User: What shape does this take?
Amino acid sequence: MVSTNAEHIIEVRGLHSQFGRQVVHHALDLDVRRGEVLGVIGGSGTGKSVLLRSIVGLRKPEGGSATVLGVDMARASDRERRLIEQRCGLLFQDGALFSSLTVGENIRVPLIEHHRLSAKLLDELVALKLRLVGLSADAAHKYPSQLSGGMRKRAGLARALALDPELLFLDEPTAGLDPIGAAQFDELILSLKRALNLTVFLVTHDLDSLYAICDRIAVLADRQVVVVDTPDKVENYEHAWVRDYFHGPRARAAQSSAARRQDTAVSHG
Ligand SMILES: Nc1ncnc2c1ncn2[C@@H]1O[C@H](COP(=O)(O)OP(=O)(O)OP(=O)(O)O)[C@@H](O)[C@H]1O
Assistant: This one.
């Protein structure tokens, strides 16, 4: 399929999310372009996770709509939902693997749910997905509790990629990883995005990730998306939270580490 950068793979229009009297989103609009990594940031409780859950259809909004690949997941039929689910991969903060299943069995879950495949083919697909995320084949026989935090994230990612999605949703994927593990995970996302032509919706607090992998950044504040643009433009956007976030001490450290990474890439390139 021919795709252009301007093609919107996700469209959120006039989204209204409310819990009791607490309004989390009001008249929120957002577009995600095919092939981009969009980072979603905002203070704690601004509704990043609620936005993600509304887009993928895990939460029905109180108003407005969120369409994925042209389908409004909150109003779709079961059949439409299943078709879209097959084209989306999800990775939540804790990796969300089933603890009573081995890694291999975890990766099989979406494959079995959506396809009828022989045991041999399932084994081959599990091995392939593990290789894709940089895990060795014997990880398939381990339980999540037997893996390090970084390996669990990779296993979660392997499961999210089981159905060869075109759209990947990541909620705080580097939370809990040490800086080296987080940087390696960022690089993995970037290389997978390029190799598999993925569109990535990334909720994160991690400034390093923003600079390392995002094409655009959307900032949630005041119940809306206050700005969505390239990192260099968002960084200079006039808004109190944006200024604190991008120009505080942690931001300067992240900017210089991103610059170092670029220098290294250039000198190796
Ligand atoms: N099921 C729920 N019931 C009641 N309130 C909820 C529910 N889910 C979310 N909220 C509220 O909605 C607001 C937004 O939550 P959300 O988890 O989306 O924030 P966030 O931006 O992802 O925050 P963080 O960065 O801390 O993870 C919060 O105030 C939260 O308490």
About this structure: Residues 37-47+165-268 form a domain with the Rossmann fold fold (CATH 3.40.50.300). The radius of gyration is 19 Å.
